[in-house]
Amino acid sequence: MKKISISAVTIFLALAISFPSQALGQGGGKVLMIPREGFSADLDLMIKMEIGVMRLLLKNAGLDVDIATTTGLPIWGANEKVTEIKMLRNINIDNYAGVIIACMAGGGGSNPPSSVSPEAVAIVKKALSAGKPVAANGNAPALLAEAGVLKGKKYSFQRDPLKPTARVALTLPAFEGAIYSGSGLVQDGLIITSGVCANTEKVTGMENGTVKLTSAFIAAVAKK
Question: Which ranges of the chain have pLDDT less than 70?
């Protein structure tokens, strides 16, 4: 039997899920996506299987998507790229129905917490204060932890970030006071998290939560 690739399964799931724009009220809406930025061969998977899949699902739901980073510069992988990017400092969160954050955008995992963007932290705080849903994939919940919005909240992460393991000695103190609830999809009020992205799935074989996270985010936006 021919083996089906992880990427093929994820794309199939994204294409199979459709959210009519009517479910989001008149005119749909617009959401903000925050990815990791930079120029690296390892960004191909995030660009194709996270940004691409999220965009497809959001578009099917009648939602427009703006992508923003700290610098506003193009994101390049070995073969994939994203060029239409806004600067976070120029974003008015009042113009968006919610925020979705791709894996590798928030520190933690392969990135130190110090890599978390202050502009992204400010956007997250403003969005939640305004009653808008915020979704974070893979290690991006570290951005929410740095923003201080996970205190007393359940969240998902690939591993418990407060407990070292044989493979990962690093712990992330910003998660103190939050409630680790496994690596699958977790929603606590307006905060939606999933601990496994396409990159994590490739390395560990754990189930990629990108489609489930985006679907839950769409449902949360529809309720607003």
Answer: 1-28, 106-115
